[in-house]
């Protein structure tokens, strides 16, 4: 496991691999190099990621964790829009992290990338003011979702916030068909709670106050924005 502030080597990353079940960015490891093209064409990616960063109200000095960062597009965009904020990004897949590191270098931004699982975040308690995450939770089983939300609570500083963009309950006939196809592709078990619109409820039961915000239609289904803050103990 990577310690705080260290960038894990490929070997370290492979040693802590795999976690089961694990759904890669495009389900199959071999498709990972196509990820940016597929998401760029089908997900209105720039709009989604800009909206998520706006929702997170990032300012200079904000310590942001991008959870399940994939090829790093969100964290890199965050750095470009908020150069005085501090961006850390983790993902469970070493191969996709290598792509993200290359993209950050090419964009001339400094993101701290590390290998890490959403339900075992390799950073200390209270290390972040914001956790942002796009398109991760539909890759996690219900148990992984719950454990991940606990971990997010742990790494958030007091008054910290979680901001999520992920698939939600499909709106309209086209989105329902697209969601059925996506659930066959990414996995019925991992996508079910998303497509039933249950992420806010699972967050609530994990000790957050969650608010579902607006939705955006994409080629692969309806995307739901959610913001959540940890409830005070006993709240
Ligand atoms: C669909 S991609 C989303 C990537 C990126 N956030 C985006 O919006 O383009 C899902 C990512 O989550 C990662 N992932 C899946 N399960 C994970 C887990 N348990 N812990 C950390 N990352 C995970 C995958 O490797 C993949 O990069």
Can you describe this structure?
With 235 residues, this protein is α/β, with parallel strands linked by helices. The protein has a single domain (10-230), classed as Rossmann fold, CATH 3.40.50. 39% of the residues lie in helices and 23% in strands. The chain is built from 9 helices and 7 strands. The chain has helices at residues 10-15, 35-42, 45-55, 73-81, 94-107, 142-155, 173-186, 188-195, 199-205, and strands at residues 63-67, 86-91, 112-115, 128-134, 156-167, 208-218, 221-230. Strands 3-2-1-4-5-7-6 form a 7-stranded mixed beta sheet, with helices on both faces. The longest helix has 14 residues, at 94-107. The structure holds S-adenosylmethionine. S-adenosylmethionine binds next to helix 4.
- The 3D shape can be described as globular
Q: Quick one: biggest sheet?
A: 7 strands, mixed
Write down the Rg: 16 Å
- Approximate strand percentage: 15-25%
Helix content: 25-40%
Count of structural domains: 1
What's the total count of β strands? Answer: 7
CATH class: Alpha Beta
- Give me the CATH fold name: Rossmann fold
What is the overall number of helices?
9
Q: Could you spell the SSE succession in H and E letters? A: HHHEHEHEEHEHHHEE
Descriptors for this entry?
single chain; 235 residues; alpha/beta; Rossmann fold; 7-stranded mixed β-sheet; 9 helices; globular; disordered N terminus; binds S-adenosylmethionine
């Amino acid at each position: 496991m990577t310690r705080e502030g260290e960038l894990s080597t490929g070997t370290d990353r492979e040693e802590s691999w795999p976690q089961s079940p694990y759904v890669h960015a495009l389900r199959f490891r071999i498709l990972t190099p196509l990820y940016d093209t597929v998401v760029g064409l089908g997900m209105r990616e720039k709009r989604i990621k800009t909206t998520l960063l706006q929702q997170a109200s990032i300012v200079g000095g904000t310590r942001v964790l991008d959870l399940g960062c994939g090829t790093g597009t969100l964290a890199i965009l965050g750095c470009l829009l908020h150069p005085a904020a501090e961006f850390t990004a983790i993902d469970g897949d070493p191969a996709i992290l290598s792509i993200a590191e290359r993209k950050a270098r090419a964009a001339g931004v400094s993101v701290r990338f590390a290998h890490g699982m959403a339900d075992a975040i390799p950073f200390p308690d209270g290390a972040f003011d914001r956790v942002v995450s796009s398109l991760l939770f539909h890759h996690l089983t219900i148990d992984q979702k719950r454990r991940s939300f606990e971990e997010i609570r742990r790494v958030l500083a007091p008054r910290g916030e979680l901001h999520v963009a992920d698939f939600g309950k499909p709106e309209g006939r086209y989105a329902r068909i697209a969601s059925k196809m996506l659930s066959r592709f990414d996995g019925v078990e991992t996508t079910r709670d998303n497509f039933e619109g249950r992420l806010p409820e699972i967050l609530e039961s994990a000790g957050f106050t969650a608010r579902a915000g607006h939705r955006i239609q994409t080629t692969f289904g309806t995307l739901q924005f959610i913001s959540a803050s940890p409830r005070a103990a006993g709240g």
